[in-house]
Amino acid sequence: MTPQTTPQAILETRGIGKTFGSVLALREVSMGVAAGQVTCVLGDNGAGKSTLIKILSGVHRHDTGAYLVDGQEVSFASPRDALDRGIATVYQDLAMIPLMSVWRNFFLGSEPRKGVAFDVAKARRVAREELRAMGIDIRDVDQPVGTLSGGERQSVAIARAVYFGARVLILDEPTSALGVKQAGVVLRYIARARDRGLGVVFITHNPHHAYPVGDRFLLLNRGTSIGEYGKDEITAQELTALMAGGAELEELAHELRRE
Length: 259
Prior knowledge:
alpha/beta, Rossmann fold, six-stranded mixed β-sheet, 9 helices, 12 strands, ATP binding, P-loop_NTPase
């Protein structure tokens, strides 16, 4: 199936590839992410998910194909370049300091200033307001972020990226180490980020987490794309079958492409 992207796509890849020496990590992968849309990238370990998000976030440069932001071809030299274009990545480790407060982590590296001093009152107020705006109920923004649940920490990271102007939010396996309840918390905030007009790239190996919030689904297997499907083109059962691999995968993918 030919990948489909809407005219308002913020981020798009066209047949991008990446090699590391003799290892082909990614080959001819195409996808698109529009405002107010969640694109789920699914695949098992070794499928190429990590390489793809490192290209999107500016950690690696692609070797072949084209990477476009707002319709213009780009080749980021660093994550800072990607962030300057509104592409923010939340990794599994979240880049938070457990013993620091929620508000301190919220502004870590981008502290508001009052003259030359750190404006603590503003940091506390803004952190509280932004978390509330995302529907995140944190009991006390002065508590160490390490005392929060895994789902709450993910939610703080999402709210932080939204506040600092993210237009595309890339989430690296945000539900992988969470229980059912906490995974549900994170999925709810992914949906809220989408509803606020962000484009979201949700990296996961779990189709049961992807399908409820996803609008489009890109499936990777050993560095290649099995296909990109809209939610109206694939059922949850078909998505799970594609993830299962083997003969089922090839047969179902062929049938879906024919349709």
